[in-house]
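Provenance and format

Records in this collection were gathered into a single text stream. Each protein contributes a sequence line and a token line. The two records reproduced below are adjacent in the stream.
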Amino acid sequence: MIHALEVEGLVKEYKQLRAVDSLSFVLNEGEILGLLGPNGSGKSTTINCILSLLRFQEGTIRIFGKEMSPKAYDIKRDIGVIFQDVAVFDELTVWDNIDYFCGLYIRDRKQRRQYVEEAIELVSIGEYKKFYPKQLSGGLLRRLNIACGIVHKPKLLFFDEPTVAVDPQSRNSILESIVRLRDEGASVIYTSHYMEEVEQICDRIIILDQGKIIAEGTADSLKDLVKTEEKLIFELRSVSPAQLEALQGLSIVSAAVFEKNRLTVSLKEGTETIAPVLEWMKRQKLRYSKVYSERPTLNDVFLELTGKGLRD
């Protein structure tokens, strides 16, 4: 099987700092792989090494079975990169910006026009073809930036924080575009600090820290790695201290807290049924207007694995 990307034994050092430490992973064809990590974990260094923007001391990088190098222009034609910082020409309209970047790879004018139209349609900026970048909102600029990066139909895409500082509508449009690109056959490396985005669109996730992989898997399998309790939330008017104490005595309950008309019941790890809690509420004649469950989130996993201390 030929993977879209294979990284094997990658080492990148800066004097006394080993930024990437014997890193190995693969990206399957037609997959969105989330690459997560706190500041300084090695994400950007890894991506820059993959793109041959940085020299590295050890390891091999293969893209669609071919070894990557600074002069591997045939490989680079199949790569699209969308960095966090918007990189477009202020002097060109939306159409001309996208056409320019497409022209770096596609010489045939008819084919280029078709590709530009398809990129514009993908990111939903058809109403703004004649606008200049300074006339666009932050969300539209992001979408223009994406169109410029994907217009030549690359098979391997890198998205680095593509939804920073955009409105919810633009964020949703960007995420839908990335999923659509995956569905059309592209393979994607996606980095973000928005855990809900990663959980929403990524088929598989790698968490880096200090240049090493500390966890890898689907969002659900990663949640199973940490001892984060599931919680039941009841909305009701009151619970007495005696009832709280009795509730904490149930075999599946590790804690119970009542604050601001919310009863939060933390369940012990491995709990498979909530029936004892519901039956207890019924016996106590505690009437609640709403009940819902809070499962561990990817954010919980990230914080438990990488720590809660601030990173520079």
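Adjacent record:
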Amino acid sequence: MKKNPRFQLFFIIILAILAIFVNIPVEGIFPFMKNLSFKKGLDLAGGTSLTYRGDMKDVEENQREKALDGARVVIERRINLFGVSEPIIQTAVTNNDYRIIVELPGVDIDQAKKIIGTTAELSFWEQGASISAKIATQSAYPLGVPEVLGNNPKKTNLTGKDLKETSVTFDPNTGKPQVQLTFTDSGAKKFAEITERNVNKIVAIVLDNVVIEAPSVNQPILGGDAVISGSFDSESANALSTALNAGALPLPLIPLQQHAVDATLGNTSLSKSLIAGILGIVIIVVFMVFLYGRLGIAASIALILYALFVLSIFRLSSLTPYGITLTLSGIAGFILSIGMAVDANILIFERTKEELRLGRSKENAMSLGFSRAWTSIRDSNIATLITCFILYSFGNGMVKGFALVLAIGVLVSMFSAIVVTRTLLRVIYR
């Protein structure tokens, strides 16, 4: 308690001012702040619904459900890599009709089709060892392969499954975007063997049965890396990189239906939920002030700042590809975290009361109250964070949103109780 709290108080005031500006954007003064808005989920903002049928003609009957689930996993991975939060992805099987239904919040139909539609099957082709007099049927090869490799092209054993990761880089000479391929150890070995036997020859890179690049090999490439430098812009390069990272779909998907999805709850439910949250804060403030007096006033100020900080995080996250999507379950997590923020203050104040009853001075009682309540606050919040981690890891859609919002609320509530409340009480007692 002997530390001067002025620096901490100044820091809190600066954070509070920034949080107010973030939550009440003044576009005339700060034009860039007009992009700060809550990302809403399907239940609040609507989105796009796509239905696909799995083409099972080349899949054995006892493997069809497994293949359909594999396609669902790949689609979910792609959507997550694209930064679309809280999608709804379901499979449906009826009378040998295998379907995948995908609902994406805040995404238009064309963008959704681009994310899901491509199969992203990567392969590498080389010239065959022998040259036949007659060109094989064009349909037997990917589009463009016979034109590039001649009469007898041959598919290598290197595929997209041998990729470790891909990334978007820029050609140092032209400045154009390109896709960097990094192979696994076994893939790097295969790639080295392919380039070694094709020096001064062409190796065609094929994506979804279309040649996207056909470079000439000047020397064996032993590093396990390759570059696809087609006619990309940044968006298409990122899309290709994401699709390759997510992997190829295990079966072709036939689009059946596509339509926009209206918000199931809409702004009315959002407004009611926010009003409920505000009303809850007001009731808690009245309760804390009535029960704890000056301590309750400090805790109430900390609680209001806590709400501003959390809402600021929600808004600022909209500037990133992986912004927090606000759904009704997420709002529930936020309101629940408000109660947890108050719980930490109550623990501190009750411990302080105990020290006062033992005859401690106010400053010593408060110092001991903070230090002795901290272990309980820490352990309870860590337990909640572990639960949030489990829900986020094994849940999907709205369950993940609830877990993420609750985890953010718990972390901010710990900062609010230990830093904000403590600083305000130091100022009051000084």
